Amino acid sequence: MRSTSRFGARHVPEGHRVLEVGTGTGYNAALLCHRLGAERVTSIDLDTSLVERARQRLAHLGYAPHLAATDGALGAPRFAPFDRIIATVAFDRVPGAWIAQTVPGAKILMPVDLTGRAGLLVLLTTDGTGLAQGHFLSHQGWFMATRANPDAQPLLGKALDDKTGSTRETALPVTVAANAQEPFEFFAALLTGGYAWLEFTPSDGGPRQTVLAHRDGSWVNHTATGGDQAPCTVRQGGPRLLWDEIERLHEQWTELGRPVRERFGLTVAGGEHVLWLDDPQGPHRWTLPVSVLE
């Protein structure tokens, strides 16, 4: 996600002020400086050493943007307001501070991280009243998650070792929920709060297994007992029956006509995040789980 793609000449007019969250090497900040002038560019990162090295690189190129080592979720109120905010690190919510630090009509482009789903790009427009709204993009944008984001990956090992839970058959193949190329996986990730997954074939040559783990401790072990043909077997445990929930969401998504990602949008206001299909005021709206956002 480079500034020349979504924040190029057409998207960042002369005079715009841009906040970049995730300085990294300083490469993207250099592009923004070249486009807008360094005085209109602010870039922040949690890592002090990264910021200092980026400062040196940018100075070598003749650029001196506003740089700061700070929590990205806080934005940069000292240099606000901004016309554009671009995040090159993934958050599991849209920070309210960002919305508050923008002018009406500003754009926020960020990757949403839902435990392994950092590729979900959303482009929001703010209205000056504390609301930000816009569509998810059709393409991926993979970035590392913030350090503050809980990670479900360590729970995969625990799920593998857990021999408890309830077992039943399922006709739903695991690939629809554990494959980034599947259009339903996006819908499932958002409305369950996201989950990590791991696919493997046992060393004894048994049927292929896929383990899913949610950061609330819920887990699923999906076994392809029939090979690529249904039915399969699921064993699940934890605070909720995650696979049951995924099956219900798949039925709902199918009834909606199997909509693709870019038909969905997000409205953020007062800390509440609402997913919607086609129209923010339409009949198909879902409030995202609080566990995803806090």
Automatic annotation (TrEMBL):
What's its EC? 2.1.1.77
Write out the entry's keywords from A to Z. Cytoplasm, Methyltransferase, S-adenosyl-L-methionine, Transferase
- The answer to whether the entry has keyword S-adenosyl-L-methionine is yes
User: Where, subcellularly, is it found?
Assistant: Cytoplasm
Q: Which family does it belong to?
A: Belongs to the methyltransferase superfamily. L-isoaspartyl/D-aspartyl protein methyltransferase family.
> Which PANTHER family does the entry link to?
PROTEIN-L-ISOASPARTATE O-METHYLTRANSFERASE, PROTEIN-L-ISOASPARTATE(D-ASPARTATE) O-METHYLTRANSFERASE
Keyword Methyltransferase among record annotations: yes
The record's annotation in SUPFAM superfamilies points to: S-adenosyl-L-methionine-dependent methyltransferases (SSF53335)
Q: Which domain of life is it from?
A: Bacteria
Q: What is the lineage of its organism?
A: Bacteria, Bacillati, Actinomycetota, Actinomycetes, Pseudonocardiales
Q: What name goes with this protein?
A: Protein-L-isoaspartate O-methyltransferase
One GO-annotated biological process of the protein = methylation
CDD domains reported for this sequence: AdoMet_MTases
* Record Pfam families: PCMT
Q: What is its main location?
A: cytoplasm
A GO molecular function held by the record: methyltransferase activity
